[in-house]
Amino acid sequence: MFTDIIVRTRTFRPSSYGEIKIVNTDLRSLDFVINRFFMNLFKTTSMEIVQLSQTYFCFELPSVLQKKRTERCRNKYNEYHYTRYDALHTF
What digits encode the pLDDT tens for the residues 37-66? Predict the structure, then answer.
């Protein structure tokens, strides 16, 4: 419930275009909450155990997901841009 409150109130700020902007401090806040959840779940203070359990359950932190999505978006943009540029300049 605490995580749900943080997610709804602090981290997702919709812009006027309907997209969701998340700043680095928001991502760190989400990462912290998720790491604390795993610490409480496994009753440990070791970040190594937390990271291993997240890997075991195929769970990625929001900061990691954001990096992957940003990279994927950049790749698609570059692919489209260069494909279009090549198509316009082949003649």
Answer: 999 999 999 999 999 999 999 999 988 888
Separation between Cα atoms, residue 75 and residue 79, nearest integer Å: 6
Domain span holding position 52: 2-88
Its pTM stands at 0.60
Domain count, the chain: 1
Contact 11, 22 (CB under 8 A): yes
Helices (H), ranges, 1-91? 2-6, 24-42, 47-56, 62-88
Dihedral, CA of residue 11, residue 14, residue 15 and residue 20, to nearest 10: 70
Residue 24 gets the label, from left (phi > 0), alpha (psi -120 to 50) or beta, of alpha
